[in-house]
Amino acid sequence: MEEGHGDRTALIGPTGRTTYGELARLTNRSGNVLRELDVRSEERVLLILGDSVEFVALWYGAQKIGAVTAEAYTFLQAKDYAYYLDYTRAGVVVADATTVDRVREAAERSRWVRRVLVVGDDFDQLAEQASDELEPAPTTKDDVAIWKFTTGSTGLPKAAVHPTHSALLSFEWYARGVLDLREDDLVLPVPKLFFGYARDLAALFPFGVGAAGIVFPERTTPERVFD
After folding, report:
1. Nearest to 212 by CA among 2, 19, 4, 5
2. For 159-179, how does the pLDDT look when each residue is reduced to its tens digit (9 = 90+)?
């Protein structure tokens, strides 16, 4: 953005292309919405929604205000979401039309949740009214930014805690050092964004070089990938 590349494509999805400038503005609006809902620094924000530009903007917006992002699979049951709510103690949980009923059922039993924010509903309304300017929180390189959950294959899922500088090191050592990502690359992840490796490959690593990622909410099938 500072180098004048705001018109480059950052994400490609079902509704078309989203530029870096558009994503930056939505990120700032998302962060302002979360601040209006009293999300504090170091507080977890739990994302339980399908892949979308809004998912990416909320992920960055939460971290920009100093909050901590965590994600859960979209195909779980209410009892599973209740576990994530208790584990993260998130005050704000973000859902969408595919998950909101199960998330609300789980939230009814939670002592922590203050608000279930729904993309495609009240989030859109609040974001429309929010400012697209946002000062980043004064975080340090050692502040926690991400809770990345394990799959639960050896028991209940557990959060691997990542500080802010972890993403930068992953980008330098892996995205550049191994994959050699370049600005004309286009990345299509097969897993969904709630899976940390896919999210990094679609919506983190490409942004470090001005490349683009692909996001779509449906389950990944061979037919959808070839589309």
Report:
1. 19
2. 999 999 999 999 999 999 999
